Amino acid sequence: MKQFYGMSPRGNLEEAVHGLNDPQLIMLFSNAKQFEAHVAALEHLYPGVPSIGCVGMSYQLSVAENGVGVIAFSGGVSVAANVLEHVSTMPVKYIRRLEQDVQTVHGSGRDTVCIDFCAGNDACVLTTLNTVLSKRSIPLVGGTGDQGKVSANGRIYEDAVAYAIVRNLNGRVKTYKENIYHPMGDYRFVASDTDRAKYILGSLNGRPAKQVYQSILHVTDEEILTRTFQNPFGKVNGDDICIISIKEVDGNALACYRQVNDSDILILLELGDYKAINQNTIRQILGDFPRRSAVFSVNCLFRYKLFSEHGYMGTYLREMTALGSHAGFVGYGEHYNNRFINQSMTCVVFE
Amino acid sequence: MLFKQKHPQANEETGLYPVLHVAESLKTYQSDLAKKEVASLSELSMVVSSFSNVLKEADHFQEKLQDLGDSFSNIDRTAERFHQVRSEIASKVELSQKQVEDLGQVSSQIQQSYDEMAQIFSHLQTAINGIQTCMKKIVAIADQTDILAINASIEAAHAGSEGRGFAIVATQVKELAREIKLLAGDVNTGVRDVEQRASQLNDSILTSQQTLGQSMESMAQTGKGFQRITEAAEGAADVQTEIAGVIRTSQQDLQNLCMFFNQIRDQYQQVVKHIDQASKLGTTKSAMFEDMSNMLSQIRPLMEESKG
Questions:
Q1: What is the arithmetic mean of pLDDT over A243-253?
Q2: Residue where one domain finishes, among candidates A243, A271, A299
Q3: Which of A244, A271, A298 is the last residue before a domain boundary?
Q4: What average pLDDT does the structure give for chain B?
Q5: Which of B41, B280, B285 is best to mutate for the A interface (most A CBs within 10 A)?
Q6: Residue-wise pLDDT tens digits, A82-100
Q7: How many CB atoms lie within 10 A of CB A218?
Q8: Among A138, A307, A316, B279, which residue's CB has the most CB atoms within a 10 Å radius?
Q9: How many beta-carbon contacts under 8 Å exist across A and B?
């Protein structure tokens, strides 16, 4: 298979798709103003080609903050793209679509991946998607788009998740998650007094969450919001850690960018040597895949901000080219299998 | 007054309301389960904390056991020095005994010399006595000679001028006798002096002999003392052997105790492993609760939409 990346900082779609021939899946990353127009134009240019899209920033060697970006797969993939609607309340209503698409692509966890762009209620959406994908052990990589809308096959959907089931016909696929944070101290908390709908974290080990965070890190209410770049929470799930960003202070509670549930086990994280961790991820992928067709990744907006502040984003994207064809987009939250996470990078590698 | 029981609405009996009721009940159970899980995880956390202290105490105790083992080894090493000290004492005692024996032999030889000297002094006294007897005889002879000279002078005087020459001889004899007596007196004086000094020397020798005798008695006592020291050192060696035996037994007991603790430690590690595993499973359960909650939350909207 081949991966195409094109972009136009001016928002010119034709410029962005210049050189794109016989695509089998097109992923569109547009801006809020031109999204509808770009979706329609793309369908017009490539009628019948499976496509998904969202409002977001794409990247290859640099991040296209405005305009439009296009990532496409061709030459050796089998794809089915669709949407689940009403994701804020009942995405399961449309689950047969996914079941049929998975059936159509007829892939397995070894050669197939689900890529999704979600408009909200991510955790619920991922749980729902996973009820089907897990039966075939199909991994998932995706992220949250902006403006609460996505596109699939030339149509705009609000309150929906657009997905593409992609089967690599010439080799394996494998998903990765990169966490640049590590546990800080031996802090371990049981979450309680949570509000799932509002992503509120009320108490940690029975004490107000804000006080706990402040007493450990000695920060003011205002500093909490920026301190999450250095010290987010981690939700422990077996051997895995899902990062949870802090959004704002809500009384004595903390509002987060993902839901926290009563009985969740949380730990405090601190920023590690992200350059070394990036290199380690690259080495791991090179070790797992001596021959790579493409790497599609989703980087968190917070990582983009952090790397940009440290003057590292350009270097990071250049380093990732060591993997060959690498492209992706900046998400408001990242999806990795059935988990909704923050401040992470997820990617899928095609052999 | 009679009240008619209201019949449930038909759609509640025949529609999807019971399914919704089941879903809501499941959500309540799920919520209760999550609360129980919070409590369970808190308890588990306390178990982990408590057990962590138990492990620390166990480690501390094992360190103390190790220290005790080291102390036993130190005692053993120190006790082993008894043997070394005993050997050194025996060696020194043997050397000292040899020196005392040599001293005893020398003292005996001196004692023998003293005896011989006593005999010599006895002979000397006899000789002095002989000299004194001879001198008395010489003085007696001189006295007789003097009387004879006086008699001769008297006879010479009676003889007149014919006896004048004889009188001169008698005077010279008398003078000779007087000189002899004077010389005999000097000899007697010298002999008495010799006798007196010989007596003093004899007394000194007797005193030395007595002192030597006392020294020999002390040497004999010293020999017995050395024997007692050797016996005492042998006793210390026996104590060392007993200490070594007790330490060997204690070390064996300690080793058994350490082995027991190692086994306990393995068991502790197993418990820690299981607690960690339980803790990990607890965290995965919370993810499952989230999934359950995510799925259950969709039932009501589905129901409401189907009713609508």
A1: 92
A2: A271
A3: A271
A4: 80
A5: B41
A6: 999 999 999 999 999 999 9
A7: 8
A8: A138
A9: 82
What are the chain B neighbours of A265 within 8 Å (beta carbons)? 41, 279, 282-283, 286
Residue B124 structure tokens: 């000397």
Question: Residue A90 and residue B279: Cβ atoms within 8 Å?
Answer: no
Q: What is the pLDDT of residues B185-241, one digit of tens each?
A: 888 888 888 888 888 888 888 888 888 888 888 888 887 888 888 787 777 777 778
Count of domains observed in chain A: 2
B293-305 tens-digit pLDDT? 888 889 888 888 8
Residue A63's φ and ψ, nearest 5 degrees, are -90, 125
Residues A22 and A85 reside in one and the same domain? yes
The residue type found at A315 is T
Residues A149 and A131 in one domain: yes
Cβ-count burial of A302 within 10 angstroms (0-12 exposed, 13-18 middle, 19+ buried)? Answer: buried
Cα distances from A57 to residues A11, A113, A138, B32, in angstroms, run 12, 22, 26, 42
Domain shared by A199 and A168, yes or no: no
Say what the pLDDT of residue B3 is.
41
Residues of A in contact with B293 (CB under 8 A): 196, 261
Highest mean pLDDT among A256-265, A281-290, B270-279: A281-290
Which of B280, B289, B302 comes nearest A238 by C-beta?
B280
When CB atoms are compared, the residue of A91, A128, A190 closest to B42 is A190
User: How much is the pLDDT for B6?
Assistant: 46
Find out whether B279 and B48 touch, Cβ atoms under 8 Å: yes
Token pair for A191: 């979450």
Which three-class secondary structure state does DSSP give residue A10? coil
Domain that holds residue A141: 2-178+276-350
Find the radius of gyration of the CA atoms of chain B: 64
CA distance B86 to chain A (A): 59
Q: Identify all chain A residues contacting B283, using CB atoms and an 8 Å cutoff.
A: 236-238, 264-265
A90, A130, A259 ranked by CB distance to B298: nearest: A90
How far apart CA A37 and CA A46 sit, in angstroms, is 14
Same domain, A119 and A201: no
Do A217 and A335 share a domain, yes or no?
no
pLDDT winner (highest mean) among A227-236, B67-76, B173-182, B189-198:
A227-236
Amino acid letter, residue A30: S
Residue of A nearest to B33 (CA): A263
Domains delineated in chain B: 72-307 (1.10.287.950)
Confidence of residue A309 (pLDDT cuts 50, 70, 90): very high
The pTM for the full model equals 0.70
Tell me if chain A has a CB within 8 Å of the CB of B52. no
Please indicate whether, in this complex, the C-beta atoms of A263 and B35 are within 8 angstroms of each other: yes
Same domain? For A148 and A213 the reply is no
A232 and A104 within one domain: no
- What are the chain B neighbours of A123 within 8 Å (beta carbons)? 290, 294
CA distance B58 to A217: 33
**Residue pLDDT, tens place only, B235-273:** 777 777 888 788 888 888 888 887 877 787 788 788 878
**Same structural domain for residues A31 and A105?**
yes
Contact A52, A115 (CB under 8 A): yes
- The answer to whether the Cβ–Cβ distance between A86 and B286 falls below 8 Å is no
Higher per-residue confidence, B191 vs A315 = A315
